[in-house]
Amino acid sequence: MTDRQKRAPRWRRRLFGNGLAIVGFAIIGFFLLFVTFAPFLAPYSPTHQSLRTTYVPPGTGVTYRGPDGELGLFVSPVTRSPVGGISVTEDEKYPVRLFVRGAEYEWAFGLIRSDLRLFGVDGPPNVRFHLLGTDEQGRDLFSRLVHGAWISLFIGLISVGIGVGVGVPFGAISGFLGGATDMIAQRLVDMLLAFPGILLAIVLVATFGTGLTNVMIAVGIASIPIYARLVRGSVLSVKNREYVEAARAMGKRGMPILFRHVLPNAIAPVIVQSSLQMAVAILFAAGLGFLGLGARPPQPEWGLMLARGREYLAVAPHVATFPGLAIVAVVLGFNLVGDALRDALDPRR
Amino acid sequence: MFQYFLRRALVAVPAVLGVIVIVFAMVRLAPGDPAILLAGEFADQQTVERIRVRFGLDRPMPEQFALFVGNLAQGDLGRSTRTNRLVINDIRERFPNTLELAFAAIVVAFAIGIPAGVISALKRNTWADAAVTFFALLGVSMPVFWFGLLAILYFSVQLGWFPVSGRGTFGHLILPAITLGVSSTAIIARMTRSAMLEVLDQDFVRTARAKGLQGRLIVVKHALRNALIPVVTIGGLEFGNLMAGAVLTETVFNWPGIGRLLVDSILARDYPVVQASVLVIALTFIVVNLLVDLVYGAIDPRIRYD
Q1: Where are the alpha helices (DSSP H) in B166-224?
Q2: Which residues of B touch A195 (CB under 8 A)?
Q3: What's the CA gap between B277 and B258, in Å, rounded?
Q4: Which of A64, A152, A290, B284 has the fewest CB atoms within 10 Å, measured from its CB?
């Protein structure tokens, strides 16, 4: 035990002494903040349409001087005319303020009702401040991105949960028992691994139907063979160590040895893989959303938003750009943390 | 040596079997009557019954499977429910396009990834190394379809350098190939870097230096040649992954390949085509991986044939 107490700070030091890891953790931290406080951080509802303000590029109608020449952030009313083109009513200016009262929302599963938003326009409700512009239905892109964050998080968590929940015991038992069980289990894994990357998820979605829930399950199932193979390898390398022999000598048998002595010492690669797998799951799900096999409109899923933005790429490039940036940031965060964890937990270093 | 090849090939058998079983199961596990799925949702009762008899859907499962494998062996993949064309013709038409794209992408990946990795390893812990590492991480974190869209936006729409979509001239190939190759480039660069670092540390490189050989000669002739073995392997395996990655890239660029065929047919619930496309992509993946294993065994004398 003392040995472990001494060693714990070392991997922690390694992990937090790594600049890239800090960036990764910071990204994930912000991401979790967005998920948790979405309705407060987003100035508008993710589904509120306004056909008079479609594809407004970010920064339209925004000025840094108020009506009396004072410094600050101000917005003027913006309307898209039926013939195309955007007109800004420049003689009207309203300040953008922190902690503004907006439309009412529910938070924490309806337990809290509030109308306080982090920022918004202090003026009539039809004057809106679009941090990242609007999409083809005049919905606030920033609000949609913030409200869509939980979808990506859930996809990642549920897929990793399925992969770990099924793949880890499967691989552990296969490696621990060995023999014919291992042979058959590994051939099953071979079958699933015969499908490259995203294809297995596509096959599952094509079979059981499209939609967000099925995408989560499909991406999860697609990660099972990876975990199974990984854990089997670790179990094989651990199961004949001295301390396992010792447990055997003390009369312990079978599963208790696996779960008490072998598995806890084979779990480090699973932690690393899970961080990387979060990244993969989010990418896959966004890809399926983009292909039209995942989330359905009007869900603010990032891949789907990108797909919609694709249709207006030439007129409103911002609609496709920002969801992509959001995906890149989150996926990069999980990849950075995964890489850093791998280095920190690597016993050879 | 021959035994090694044989053993490798045998390992691929359960994988092939698995693919066939899963493709067979797809239609039977999907909600709804498999005969209707294979005939198309707008088919009349007569056609549905004909399909039911033709694929033995009224028989027990083992018999259905035998029939399925038998048809497969004869290249009979059924007819598309959308176009009523023989599926095999669609595949024959589309498959070379996907191969072309994947091949171009892997060329891009090697052409950029290997030099980037070598520079990164030689200039270890400098800004160049950091830049390569950063871009490599970015490359694996980026959704390919987003990269593709941005590429279209800047290079096709705004600068007008390349066609927006489709297939035809060499110019059509460039953006899709780069897009599809991005993540492979990143993976190959990282792999090259770590392989080079390992090799540069070894005795024979030190010996070459001690013999007084020039720096560049050592890098190219001694270090890189040895470092390339794992890199080529990873590159080969990446080629298989590119077949699946093509699904997204082909959709972005309207590339008439098998990936887009798959997506279109899923959206149109055209199950015969879905089955065939999945089968072809997965089998290509297995075959490519097998070939990579064989080549690896042939070029690396350190591989033991036991």
Answers
A1: 170-200, 203-210, 215-217
A2: 19, 22, 244, 282, 285
A3: 6
A4: A64
How many Å apart are CA A320 and CA A310, to the nearest integer? 6
Residues of A whose CB is below 8 A from B23:
203
In this structure, the number of other CB atoms found within 10 A of the CB of residue A47 comes to: 14
List, for residues B20-46, the tens digit of each pLDDT value. Answer: 988 888 888 888 788 888 888 788 888
Angle at B64 between CA B284 and CA B52, to 5 degrees: 105
Comparing C-alpha atoms, which of A43, A53, A57, A216 is closest to residue A144?
A43
Domain covering B95-299: architecture? Orthogonal Bundle (1.10)
Question: Which stretch of DSSP H or E encloses residue A64?
Answer: strand A62-65
The CATH number of the structural domain formed by A3-36+146-345 is 1.10.3720.10
pLDDT tens figures, A221-257? 989 999 998 888 888 888 777 777 787 778 777 777 7
Question: What are the boundaries of each domain within chain A?
Answer: 3-36+146-345, 52-138
- Within 8 A by CB and 6+ apart from A29, the residues are none
B148 and B177 Cβ atoms separated by less than 8 Å: no
Q: List beta partners, residue A119.
A: A98
Q: What pTM value is reported for the model?
A: 0.86
The answer to whether the beta carbons of residues B251 and B259 sit under 8 Å apart is yes
Residues 279..338 of A with a Cβ closer than 8 Å to B: which? 279, 283, 286-287, 290-293, 303, 306, 309-310, 313-314, 317, 320-321, 323-324, 327-328, 331-332, 335-336
